[in-house]
Amino acid sequence: MGALRWWTRQSARCDNAAEVPSLEGAVLRGVKTVLRPIEETDLALLWKWENDSELTYYLNADRHRTMSMDEVNRRYRQIRGDPTMELFIIETQHGERIGMLGYDNLSLERRSCRVYIGIGEKGYWSHGYGSDAMRALLSHHFTELQLERVYLSVYDFNDRAIASYRKCGYRVDGVRRNVALVDGQWCDSIEMSVNATDFQRQNHRVASAATESHD
Ligand SMILES: CC(C)(COP(=O)(O)OP(=O)(O)OC[C@H]1O[C@@H](n2cnc3c(N)ncnc32)[C@H](O)[C@@H]1OP(=O)(O)O)[C@@H](O)C(=O)NCCC(=O)NCCS
User: Fold this and answer.
1) What CATH number should be reported for the domain holding residue 35?
2) Taking Cα atoms as reference points, which of 161, 194, 154, 196 lies closest to residue 175?
3) Which of 24, 32, 169, 191 could form a disulfide with 173 if both were Cys (CB 3.0 to 4.6 A apart)?
4) Which of 50, 126, 152, 194 to mutate to test the pocket of ligand 1 (most atoms within 8 A of CB)?
5) Which residue's CA is the nearest one to ligand 1's atom 30?
6) The pTM is what?
C-alpha cells in the first residue's frame, strides 16, 4: 500500500477528529491505478469533470447540473479542513489523471464511511479502472482504518456502476424510490454497502480467478 504517513488532523467539528489519521501526502496503490489526495493543481480538471453532462447524469441524475470554479474551490477547502472526508485523484500507472474517488461521513466510532466515484476521462470506462481504484480505497478502509462498513448510493439506471460495485463486494441494502426525475421518468436510488468480511471474501474470489487464468 506504499509508504503512508499518518498524523492527526484537528477539527473543531468532529468528535472523533483526534483519532482520524491524515492521508496528506499519502498514496494508495491498486493494480491498475494509483490514488493520491487531490491538490490545488487538480482543480481545473475537477471543474471539467463536474461540468460534463454525461458524468453529472450518472453522478447526480441531472444532465444540466453545473459547478462554478468558486464552488470547486470551496469544496476543496472544505475537504482539506475536515478529517472525516477525503478526495483522491485516480491516476493510471503512467501518471494520467482519469478520475476522482472520495469519501465522507467517516466515523471511527461507527467504523463506517460513505464513498463516491467518477472516472472523468470516459475512454477509461469499462476497462477495470473504477473497480481497481475502489478496491484500493476499500483495502485501506478495512485494513488501516479497521472500518466495518462502507456504503454508497447509485441510481437504478447506472448498470455499469452497479456491476463494478458488485465486483468489489458491495451488496444491496435497500432502495429509495422515486428520488429523481430523469427524462420524464422517476428513478430509484439503490443503497449498497460492503463490510469487512464481504470484502475479504470478494478479494479472495478475485485472487483465485486471477490464479486460475494464469494456470
Ligand atoms: C462507475 C464507474 C466508476 C465504474 O468504473 P469502470 O472502470 O467503468 O468499471 P469497471 O470496468 O471496473 O467495471 C464495470 C463492469 O460493468 C460492466 N458493464 C459495462 N457496461 C455495462 C452495462 N451497461 N450493464 C451492465 N454491466 C456493464 C463491465 O463489463 C464491467 O464488468 P466486467 O469487468 O465483469 O466485464 C465508471 O464507469 C464511472 O465513473 N462512470 C461515470 C460516473 C458514475 O457512474 N459514477 C458512479 C456514480 S454512483
Assistant:
1) 3.40.630.30
2) 154
3) 191
4) 126
5) 126
6) 0.91
CA 160 to ligand 1 centroid distance, Å: 3
Residue 9 lies in a domain: no
pLDDT given at position 213: 74
- The CA 185 to ligand 1 mean position distance, Å, reads 22
Q: With the C-alpha atoms ordered 145, 59, 175, 132, is the resulting torsion angle positive or negative?
A: negative
Question: Is the minimum distance from the CB of 137 to ligand 1 under 6 angstroms?
Answer: no
**Residues 141 and 177 sit within 8 Å (Cβ to Cβ):** no
In a domain, 205, yes or no: no
What domain range is 63 assigned to? 17-152
Q: 154 in ligand 1 pocket by Cβ < 6 Å? A: yes
pLDDT given for residue 16 in this prediction: 60
**pLDDT at residue 63 above 70?**
yes
Provide the number of structural domains found in the chain. 1
The pLDDT-based confidence of 204 (bands split at 50, 70, 90) is confident
Task: Quick: pLDDT tens for 1-54.
Answer: 222 222 233 333 445 655 666 666 689 999 999 999 999 999 999 999 999 999
Residue at 211 is within a domain = no
Does 33 map to a domain? yes
**CA distances to 21, 156, 186, 200 from 181, in Å:** 39, 12, 4, 37
58 lines ligand 1 (CB under 6 A): yes
